[in-house]
């Protein structure tokens, strides 16, 4: 078989396997991939936000340092520079804005509930048929609570935690992807090794192949697909460590911090309108990374990120894919409601129930039907 026939035969075999290999020789070190077994795999998309942009920047730099000819005119500074700046800006904003809210609003609203709340509750329950003096601390705090339908608190909190579950699930999948990706021992150009990348890991068969077209063949980090997507199946170990330490761990920690601050902000809201508006505002914190990404990441980088995904050995069962993940998320949200709102903040809920009972005993139930207000009585 001639060289030309061998190349055509190789290209046909690659296309039959659903993998597109460009006809030029830029990919000659990686053009043989028909041995890949993608029958049982999970696909984890690279997020389209500043976290994903910085993560993909590190991956592309590692790919270039490993000998890839793609984007050979680009530099590490070009890939890393702006995305690192956006990543740090996002981390600063997502951390600073909740801290400002804690110091200027939440602490002031939480302070009255910290001392003697159980005694306030008992006093209101004991005074259902008599009027307390206006300067009684329990009554002063009771007047501040103008939410007449207490069920609105668990409803809004469930919606808030449902939103946070999305963040934790995305972070968990990214962490699972980096844990299950093969590690590549990287020897940069100029080293004594004949291979630029050496496969290490239990999933090496996922992208194992034999070279028939190049003497300098090496394992590959990415495989282009006919659809235009790029499946990342292996990374250098230090790239994996940097991505987990600089991207995934801060993402998880910030999500926990924002979930905690958002919960306190909602629990200590005293008006229905404020409760609903605050629920919308605190979700904006979670979209800062997407806002910066869509505003400032270049079009070319966005295309690269949008086409990229991690492809790993399947780590879930068919039952989990069909209904298990849904049940797990629902269970987590219900558990948060029971443990946090009715458990940790149970005394706050009990005080508000006692407060409503007191208002009803003094002002009459007709003023507590959920449609009218007791402001006239509260401020009389």
Overall description:
The protein is an alpha/beta fold. The protein has one domain. Helix content is 60%, strand content 8%. The protein is built from 13 helices and seven strands. The strands form two sheets. Strands 1-7-5-4 form a four-stranded mixed beta sheet. Strands 3-2-6 form a three-stranded mixed beta sheet. Helix 2 runs antiparallel to helix 7, helix 6 packs antiparallel against helix 7 and helix 6 packs across helix 11. The longest helix has 39 residues.
Give the DSSP E fraction (strand runs of 2 or more residues).
Answer: 5-15%
Please provide the ordered H/E string of secondary-structure elements: HEHHHHHEEEEEHHHHEHHH
- List low-pLDDT spans: 1-36, 186-219, 366-380
Largest sheet: 4 strands, mixed
Tell how many strands the DSSP assignment holds.
Answer: 7
Q: Please, what is the average pLDDT?
A: 76
- Rg, alpha carbons: 29 Å
Which shape, going by the Cα principal axes? elongated
N-C termini distance? 99 Å
Helix/strand layout:
Elements: H1 3-16, E1 41-45, H2 50-65, H3 76-114, H4 117-126, H5 137-144, H6 152-180, E2 182-186, E3 197-200, E4 222-224, E5 230-232, E6 234-236, H7 237-267, H8 272-286, H9 288-296, H10 299-307, E7 308-313, H11 318-344, H12 346-363, H13 375-378
Parallel strand pairs: 2-6, 5-7
Antiparallel strand pairs: 1-7, 2-3, 4-5
């Amino acid at each position: 078989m001639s060289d030309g026939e061998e190349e055509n035969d190789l290209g046909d075999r690659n296309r039959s396997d659903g993998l597109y290999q460009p006809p030029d020789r830029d990919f000659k070190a990686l053009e043989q991939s028909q041995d890949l077994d993608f029958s049982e795999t999970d696909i984890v998309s690279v997020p389209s936000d500043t976290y994903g942009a910085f993560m993909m920047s590190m991956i592309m730099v590692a790919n270039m340092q490993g000998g890839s000819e793609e984007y050979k005119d680009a530099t590490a500074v070009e890939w890393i520079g702006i995305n690192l700046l956006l990543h740090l800006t996002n981390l600063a904003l997502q951390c600073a804005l909740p801290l400002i809210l804690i110091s200027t609003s939440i602490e002031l609203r939480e302070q009255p509930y910290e001392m003697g709340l159980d005694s306030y509750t008992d006093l209101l329950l004991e005074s259902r048929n008599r009027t307390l003096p206006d300067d009684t601390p329990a009554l002063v705090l009771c007047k501040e609570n103008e939410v007449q339908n207490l069920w609105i608190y668990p409803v809004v909190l469930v919606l808030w935690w449902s939103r946070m579950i999305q963040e934790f699930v995305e972070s968990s999948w990214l962490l699972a992807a980096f844990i299950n990706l093969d590690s590549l021992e990287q020897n940069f150009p100029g080293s004594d090794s004949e291979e630029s990348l050496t496969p290490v890991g239990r999933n090496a068969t996922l992208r194992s192949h034999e070279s028939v077209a190049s003497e300098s063949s090496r394992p590959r980090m990415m495989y282009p697909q006919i659809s235009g997507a790029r499946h990342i199946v292996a990374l250098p170990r230090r790239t994996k460590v940097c991505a987990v330490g600089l991207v995934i761990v801060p993402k998880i920690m910030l999500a926990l911090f924002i979930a905690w601050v958002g919960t306190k902000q909602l629990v200590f809201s005293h008006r229905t309108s404020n409760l609903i508006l605050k629920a919308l505002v605190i979700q904006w914190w979670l979209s800062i990374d997407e806002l910066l990404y869509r505003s400032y990441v270049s079009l070319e980088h966005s295309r690269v990120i949008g086409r990229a995904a991690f492809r790993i050995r399947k780590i879930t069962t068919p039952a989990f894919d069909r209904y298990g993940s849904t049940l797990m998320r629902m269970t987590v949200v219900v558990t948060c409601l029971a443990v946090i709102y009715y458990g940790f903040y149970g005394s706050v809920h009990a005080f508000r129930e006692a407060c409503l009972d007191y208002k009803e005993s003094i002002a009459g139930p007709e003023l507590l039907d959920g449609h009218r207000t007791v402001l006239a009585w509260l401020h009389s």
